[in-house]
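Exercise 7 asks you to align residues with tokens for two separate proteins.
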Amino acid sequence: MRLSTVILPIHRWSEGQKIWRWAEDLGFHAAYTYDHLSWRSFRDGPWFGAIPTLTAAATVTRRMRLGTLVTSPNFRHPVTLAKDLISLDDISGGRITLGIGAGGNGFDATALGQEAWSPRERADRFAEFVPLLDRLLTEGAVSHEGTFYSAEEVRNIPGCVQRPRLPFAVAATGPRGLRLAARHGQAWVTTGDPKLFEEGTPEQSREALRGQLERLHKALAEIGRESEPMEKVLLTGFTPEANRVLESVDAFVDFAGRHRDLGFTELVIHAPIPDSDFAADEAVFEKIATEGLAQLER
């Protein structure tokens, strides 16, 4: 199992760069950030762009993978996103993972002046967005006339450093999204069942996750990918355990062990943010980062 972290883009770079370096020094496999225009309780405070943040992070780190959890069509277009990603993959030396999902009804959904899309329309857009982005990152010239997105003789030369393109980590729980993850993803991402977050039990959450994994495996089998490697990523903080996972090394090891046994290959924990839902003791966080997985293997 791998351990990664999320660093929210809430700090001016004079301070933010220290957190990204700290994450690499702690030995995290990857550090991700959220790709939003603003987000939940952080809406009235500082919030910086994901792509510039990751570009800057690429220049102050050397080994750790970097990425988004997650980018969505809410305010992104595949053509412009592909150009940014190819540039970012080059600057980072091939360390970028694109976490990508269908988006939701948060602030991003209406920031460009549009009505919030229905769940059906979000799924329809995502189903067109992901394959087009895949083509844009792998083909020399792309034209596409779709229902939602168009591209006319788009060039993305020289392409990604990672071949055939940078990996996609597709966030999905429904049938259509899982099929997209199976066909285009090198990893699958979930936060668990949102209906269980506030009132469910850890046991119910694990059962729901087991069901999601079973449906993913079925989608992989349907296209003959069941024997190919597929990373299974759990973004923590949104299951009934919430941030209590970071209260102690023992709490983390128990949580990690139970979810490793389900089949997850990567856990992502939030870097501490005081006075927020992600508040945590930094000393405990450091100990989890440096000792947690080693204790899990005992």
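Second protein for Exercise 7:
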Amino acid sequence: MRFLFRFGAGFALLAVAACGAPAPAAAPASPPAPAATSARVTPASARQVGADELGRVPILMYHRIVARPRSVYERTPEDFTAELERLAAEDYVPVTTAELVTHRLDLPAGSHPVVLTFDDGDPSVFGLTPQGQPAAGTAVRILLDVAAAHPRFRPVASLYVNEHPFGAADGGPELRWLADHGFEIGNHTRHHTNLRKASESEVTTAIAEEDAALRDYRPRTLALPYGVHPRRAELALRGPGYSYDGVLLVGAGPAPAPCSAGFDPGAIPRIRSQSTGSEAEYGSSHWLDVLASPSGHRYTSDGDPATVAYPRSGPAPAPACASVGLAY
């Protein structure tokens, strides 16, 4: 994926290194420049594919893949496969959370981004065989198999882990395999700490300890345990020893596009993967139906990573993206 453009001055403080000490305040960013090698989109081509790069993005949240679910946070392998097949059929292209929040979206014209996120590092999500291959039945193996059948469906996801990810003593081989194959490794705190109930020092320790453990994988985003912010919300984005580009909630709806005026990198909503049962109206099947409807306001790519195309009848992009906006 090519880098679309740098954040404007309003976002400069967030675009800092994920590891090590927090970076000093950045100088205002220069105006974004289009990628020299990309084919330029025109109003006519944007209109033809119905481009709307200020539309909403589904960020789907998973925890465990099990044969007999006992909670709304678990899905069967069959349910998970069916959801991935639906996404592929509806021309969604998986991207990572880090790619989304840093505007590194280079998608085919007319396609839609989706972010697949997995919390807690459960062994049902990923494991390696003795031969070093993704274990059968795990979420990652299923994702790879679906992607093999649908070439435009990228096999990537964002995995938010605590200590002992995927049931391993240190998670080394598993995390390395994932990072080497384009998956994002994100912070979920060392001990799945409820940050709302923690003191400020406990908050920064919980985040910084896991950040240090993941330093080789350069975590860029954080998923809040239980979906709750610390009492001083900005500590989720940065504190002693860490700084992040985005923070994920639990939520119950699609996320605003990164260039929309409503996007808040410190509070990015997700959608629980769910089709039936209690509170299914907040689940993925419902929201994918909504997004596919004529009034769904779904993010649709213009095919050019250097522009942000959107219908003239809709709202304008955030000031940081105005210089690359293309209304039609």
